Amino acid sequence: MSYPAVQGAGDSPQPAWFYPSVRRRMASFVYEGVLLFGVVMLSGFLFSSITQQRHALKGLHGLQAFLFLMLGLYFVWFWCKTGQTLAMKTWHVRLVDRFGQPVRRWRASARYILSWVWFLPSLGVAEIMGHRAGAPLWSWLLGGVLLIAVAGRFSPGRQFVHDLVCGTRLVDARQHPVRRP
Predict the structure, then answer these.
(1) Where are the domains of the chain?
(2) What is the pTM of this model?
(3) Is the confidence at residue 27, as pLDDT, over 80?
């Protein structure tokens, strides 16, 4: 189900926005996690082949930085090219800027970095509490994700915090086709 948004008098002259429900965006989020498993596996293989890494804990921080960059390339490339990752295509969700145009590279990069707000606060709290693995860590992560998802239901256009800060929005791809500038 898509939710139409009403434009105010100060908005640019465009048709009303149709936003995907939070439920549909969260389904896309979960499916994205499944698809990212393959991206992480291929990136890890590439890193270990290039660096001749033989033990998972040797060069751990280098691997983490490499994965961060590879995930960033994945998201930024898809968001700039079509506004949709593979999971977003499945769930008919598209990323656009505030004017309905495809996002530029700098905006997509900023959105990728700010999207870590889904995980970093929860990971920080878990670290402070001494929960580094197992059920307590996953509980903190799940709690943080649910908190941000619930907050998205009450924000303007039901957008998440990183979209509000970056000037992007998730729209229903069936209602808003790709428009090139």
Answers:
(1) 17-172
(2) 0.80
(3) yes
